[in-house]
Fold this protein.
Amino acid sequence: MTGVVDFLLTGAGQLVTADPGLGAGPLGLVERGAVAASKGTVLWAGPERDLPDLPLDKRRTVRLDAEGMAVVPGFVDAHTHLVFAGDRADEFAARLRGVGYEQALAAGGGINRTVRETRAASGAELEAATAGRLVRAALHGTTTLEAKSGYGLTVAVERRSLEVLASLAARTRVEVVPTFLGAHLIPAEFAADRAGYLDLLEHEMLPACAPLAEFVDAFCDRGALTVEESRRVLEAGRRAGLAPKLHANELGSTGGAALAAEQGCVSADHLLYLEPEEARALAAAGTVAVLLPGTSFLLRTGRSAPAGVLRDAGVTLALGTDCNPGTCYCESMQLMVALACVHGGLTPEEALLAATDGAARALGRGGRAGRLAPGSACDLVVLEGRSYLDLAYHLGVNLARVVVKAGTVIARSGVDTGILAADVEGSLLHGR
Ligand SMILES: [Zn+2]
């Protein structure tokens, strides 16, 4: 790697590279570490005493002293439903009183309600709401984030949801990875003609939406799509140039995980119900398991994805917030790391790796994001804490002291210093 250094971080008490070749253990942990980068890409990472004599752009180099704090790769959120209008706080309260998620869905609440509210919102309203969530995620250290459509379920509103993401992506430094989820649910107006909805999805929605998306996803579960319906969506998505992902085995053993393996999905997400042979099939297919511990925690069923089964099968693990208005309204990957440990049975090392390198793999960005190694994006978080263990241990507060995206400081101590590019910030409410 060559290049003039324009970003230099020193003084990391612990530097988590997430590259086992660069340091100790699976986290590639380096004591008293340093990172040098050029034009947003890491040139060098390792012990500060070994920092090579690289050419420095003396006038423009961003210099950061981590002052003994721990430094981790920027978080990669592998699964969000960021684009929606309205909220379902009252439904959350009802769930605390004992009304089940599937009960609310059957009564016209749940996703159906957010679909109604999202359809009623203007593009500008949808974009402003989504931008707010994206900024909150970045303030908590997320530097790459997947986001799905799926609350429109019409050609126009699915397209509008992906346009909101494209518009946001153009004016934020956070990398936004768009997923088409027109198969989130069969909308109420197609309840008696499920195949009719899938015809619409395949022949009208996909041509309108695929140019704005990278992945296709389906909610394969009880009360949503069947295995056969989901297979049709994934195959149609692939023909339209999208890589497949799948919501699988969240509400029951519904065959979603096996379908994800069969279809060679980049990721299978949720997996609260998972048999060892399904886990082995995912491992053999190279499908990453995206665990969403916030959702399983808030559903209060006591169930989480079986860490031991996944570990034994050697499945690559990733984490996501699942940020959505129904089952987990949270943008913080820090909290997901903590919940993955205290509720999901992962070790702190597994959880942190899943929130960085693993999540990048779940988005087809392995090695490019979620690592601090030569050639990776210079995305990092200086923590308010001397150990990465604080992410699980020091609970419920924002530990992101400094957030760096591609060599630029985008947040300091909870304040936005460049998440949304300043020159276009004024266009926030310009409507479509
Ligand atoms: Zn989801």
Q: What stands out?
A: The chain has 14 helices and 17 strands.
